[in-house]
Fold Lipopolysaccharide export system permease protein LptG.
Amino acid sequence: MNKIDRYIASSVLWAFLIVIFVLLGLDYALTFIDKIKQVDDHYPISALLQVLLFRLPGKLAEYIPIASLIGTLMGLGTLASTSELTVMRAAGLPIWRIGLAACQPILLVSLIGLAISEYVAPVAEQKANLIEQIRDQQDTNFALTGGVWLKADKKFVYINAADNTGKLYGIIVYTPDNEKLKRVIRADTATHKKGDEWILNNVRETLFFPDHTEAKRFKTMDWSVSIKPEHLFLASQDPDSLSLSQLSNYKDYLETQHQDASQYALEFWQKALRPLGSLALVLVALSSVFGPLRSSTMGGRIFSGVMIGLAFQNGLNLFGQMSVAAHFPPAIGVSIPIVLCTLAALYLMRRKG
């Protein structure tokens, strides 16, 4: 990379850092104002500040595409306002070379954002969720409260709570027989042995026959079911708080159980394709700087960037949810806005030479 490439890249990178800092600061402040009413004896303000802090890595990864767009508009717009881009173009530097230099820092931060989405944000987000979930609990080992329903091996399982050691509390297992109920098992706790093997403790079993029912009690009972502790944890989390590997893992599990995994597939592709979305928005910014926003003020460029970014994000949400509703691959739904932005930007840049 020569001096001109480094100069363009540094201008875009510094503008990006300013934008992402402002976006995160505004999000933190506005969320704090919105959530302050939840503060009480069980949920002090220190816990609220901790929750918001834990959620910053996820917000950072989420804001990278729109920050890339606005940062590129600001960085290249500053060079355009001082006629530096005009001098570069007069010296024979093609638009594609300027675009390549602008894309390099954005690609770097996008890959960093992808790593954050995989390794940092999920852990931090899940800790934030845990603080909120247990604010009325005295035992801070609980990772899942309020109950969750699962379907496993053609049985319906309700679990009231689970802790971070994999122990389950308040288990009810419903075993159907076509449209009739065949058996109900209730247990106070369950502990995982290995593989698909669990041990139920303090068990009450009810068997349903055509003319009578039978109730039995057991101190312990072996329970074989394709539910693993990690599946319970993943089931207790919102899809947007999971990493790419967790989304893929739980999506595969739901598919093996013949359950709908489209929301997890959609969230997976939205996160996985963020770097491509960021690059597409950089190309849009580049075509705008050399096109309709060439003589615009900095405020006008920022406003345009916000509007384009919101339109892009709404397009991602729209086509993503359409893919879920229409039952076509979420990867296609997420790709449509990215492809449209890229094609439009390339067309406008080609017209400008």
User: Anything to note?
Assistant: The chain has a mean pLDDT of 86. Residues 95-133 form the longest helix (39 residues). The beta strands are 142-144, 148-152, 155-163, 168-177, 180-194, 197-208, 213-224.
